[in-house]
Amino acid sequence: xxxxxxxxxxxVVTAFLRNRGDVLFLxxxxxxxTYTGQWGGxxxxxxxxxxxxxxxxxxxxxDLEPGDSVSFVRSGRPVEFEDPDLGREWVVHPYLFxxxxxxxxxxxxxxxxxxxxxTDALEIDPExxxxxxxxxxxRAAGRETVPKLWTAYERVxxxxxxxxxxxxxxxxxxxxxxLEVLRDRAGLxxxxxxxxxxxxxxxxxCDELAALAGRLLExxxxxxxxxxxxxxxxxxxxxxxxxxEDESGDEDVPADATAVLESTLAGLERAATADADAAANxxxxxxxxxxxxxxxxxxxxxxxxxxxxxxxxxxSRPAREGIDVAEELAADGAFDAPVTVHTDAAVAxxxxxxxxxxxxxxADTVRPDGAVVNKTGTRTLALxxxxxxxxxxVVAATDKLSTREELNLESGxxxxxxxxxxSIDVLNPTFDVTPADCVxxxxxxxxxxxxxxxxxVVEELRGLEGWRDR
Length: 470
Known about the structure:
Blueprint: E1 10-19, E2 22-28, E3 39-40, E4 42-45, H1 50-62, E5 70-75, E6 79-83, E7 88-99, E8 110-116, H2 135-142, H3 149-154, H4 160-165, H5 171-192, H6 202-217, H7 224-242, H8 257-283, E9 287-293, H9 297-305, E10 307-314, H10 321-331, E11 339-342, H11 347-353, E12 358-361, E13 365-366, E14 372-375, H12 378-388, E15 392-395, E16 431-434, E17 441-444, E18 447-449, H13 451-462
Helix pairs in contact: 5-6, 5-7, 5-8, 6-7, 7-8, 8-9, 11-12
């Protein structure tokens, strides 16, 4: 950023690029006119339409291509502030994008970069928190950022509401968003301990974060992975707190913000690794002609890692997420197999006439009895595959196994099916249930689980739910 001499506010754009829960921080070099040596996001003057300018900045400052390796998530309300040292008013237009890769090429405007937790943008006083051996908190305590960077991030950060309303992303991706919400709030509570006049209250922190975790648990009731990953993070935080002692020697110490921040940072890394390992295990099974339906990030990763001779993709009405999968595979220069799209209604025909070797789908939830909850159409596909003798693999991290017997199947908007004026009832079920006997294996980060082994993992996950009884 450079400044001008008039009194008109200077409009700039700032993008946070996210990958596996971390965001990209860039350190401003001597080539820029302001805030040299400070850390920020991808930024630049909003010389025209901010929506167009931010894509230009991403391309120029990272060599990543918006719409290809970088996808738009949301924009936020502009942040307005005055910098008294510069005598300038700034209007920052914040954006959030998801990046498929962490490989970037820096322009001359920056001399260093790091993918790290956005909580590193907070000014955490190292003397106000017992950081122990936490590298993340030590980095956060020493990072100098451009003004209002955290405020800009908060305008585009995930929330309970955005998770509940998201009908585009799969369960695995949304589970990462839930951990980000917990992480961000815990990080802010830790940072606030350094404010003058603020007296840390671990019990109050624990109550606030437990209440937030409770809301996240029910944000998407059909997605077990959200509940399991929140439960895992909170159970780990409670365990850490229970092992601590306060100054009086009392061992009954609550899971405060520091413990939750640490457990969510670890949880994000664990979740991303589990999804990647599940995809790698599934890739070993996918040879020949493979058919899939809907959109699963884990399935997409498995297909890219496998060596199929052809991929068939059912479009997955009404949102047609399968089209996105087909386009992404076709646009991937490293993916050599031809890709064919067809209607959901044609799955039985394709299976009977195209010599399909394997069906692979994702899962929003795997029930304790091995039945699979996934996008509507999965049951029809699995039944047709069973008729043709085609094996069906479900790719899902073990955190997608549900501890609940009951189901809460979501439905989509009426208008997605029919928006006419006739007096017609409309059904738009978003999920269906595929019986366990139509699934050959649930492929996880631990390998392929037979139906009998599912129950053992479910009992393990149930053990994480006890944090609420702290």
